[in-house]
Amino acid sequence: MELLSKKSILIIAPSLIAESLSLKLTSLDKNLEITLNSDIEGKTPDLIIWNILNYQSEDLIRLELLKLRERWAESKILIILSGELVAQKSPSLNAEGFLLNPSVDNVLESINIILNGGRVFDLENNSNVKNKKEKLLTFNQKLLTSGLKQIDNEINYIFKYVNSDSTPDFYKFILKGRLRELITAKSFLIFIWGNSLDLYTESIYTENKITSDNSSTNTIIIKEKNTLEIWNLILNRLRDKYNSSNLNIDFNNSSIILSGIKKEFISRLMCKMLDELDNLIKNIKENYKEKDFKEDFNSLIEELKINTISNITESYFRLRRKNESLSINEYIYKEVSCNEIDKESHESIMFIEPIIKNEPLDYDGKLLPLYETESFIVLENIISNWIIRNCNLLASELFNICSTWPELRTVLINPELQSTRNFERFRNNINSYNRWHEYIYMPIYLYESKREYIDIIDNKFTRYFKNENREKELENLEWLQKQVTLLVEIRDAISPQLEIAVKYIGNLFVTFLTKVVGKAIGLVGKGILQGLGRSISK
């Protein structure tokens, strides 16, 4: 893949990596004008490739990224993380491109996409880098890297004298000639032996071979700044995530009632809701061009939930109930209401409206363009949390129906819960947890500006938290819930004073024991010893 016109690229990386990358890219595409010197003047590059070895700190990367934006405001930036990833999560950075241990071909493809106005980024679970010693450097590779290091040291040594004002001009003239010879020799060595250098590893510095597991590669490519394209990417990713072949939920007496349904129906429920959400978005996009869809939005969402739960089984599947053969889907459709709302999920209008209107996402007081890396991850997490939580509410409806229809339990409910005792005990535990969450946990979460998310991690439904501004929800709490926040506030106000008082009393008690009681015991002991001494002397 070659660019149609000449494009200037600045590479910021360790010298050997930068030169090797430049050599390999220019060999694949002759239209690339690559500069390795970050001190270029009078010219703004079209693209900056910043290669980072062994990423450890997201804050430092963000700081350096701001400096690059200040210096080259019009340039696009491609960040490459290579080597061993120390941190568990890759950073969320708003650059035009973000890659984890890519190949040269992937870098070239990303360059073309970015320069044409697109976005390319890898997500946090994309590439697992492992440190192995299965392949050592050969003698020729050791000799080559050693020679290149010596040349680099000599070049840096010459630069010190060339850039010094105290160096005579005559010596500068001689040193510049020497510098040209060293640069030519280095370029010649890289040209001849560059293929023996592993660009995206530290093999040029150590004997350890860093290899990447590319089997899980999942690179997000956004070619146009179109929210429907972004929605389709998220839709396909969540479908793969919820697919029954990829989903293997372990029942672990969870506080999530959805886990009490059979695995295949968990997958079917979530995938069906995802499909209904897709149909809803595209229907609104097509049929509400002149009319405001917000007037019908609540009824549309309710219809979405009913359509989801009423297709939990196959269309023609029937089951006997009181000597009557009934369609399960039709029965569920008549019995469910789907009016309950999960207050821990975001309002559906929050993420549906930006997709429909091609607008930024209003999240936590910030407007996030959906084609940016951070925005994409935030939007995907919000939608996934909304899907799982609403499916959890639908699962509660199914459990209510199954309580009066034991035969239906054998079809839908986890085998461990099919006995009446286990079934009712599980429901009671869920109801108890929901009451505690409603009146105790949730007010505390709101007061602490936290939102609870549910996701599938390690084949289990897992709860985790994110810090978000929830002042409006805090103001709308019921009287009893507000008293919980008041108690937390009182505890926060009293606990520091109480801690100081306890510490002060403790210090007084220690002083009393050591200075008063200790001395008294010492005097008594001294008197006893003196008395014993006198009696012995007599």
Work out the helicity level: 40-55%
Low-confidence stretches: 125-135, 198-217
| Assembly context of the chains | single chain
Quickly give the structural class: alpha/beta
Strand content bin: 5-15%
Number of domains: 2
Number of strands: 15
Alpha plus pi helix count: 15
Terminal residue distance: 112 Å
**Morphology:** flat
Rg, Å, rounded: 33 Å
Q: How is the biggest beta sheet arranged?
A: 7 strands, mixed
One letter per element, helices H and strands E, the order comes to EHEEHEEHEEHHEEHHHEEHHEEHHHEEHH
Instruction: Describe the strand arrangement of the main beta sheet, using strand numbers.
Output: 2-1-3-4-5-6-9
Averaged pLDDT, please? 82
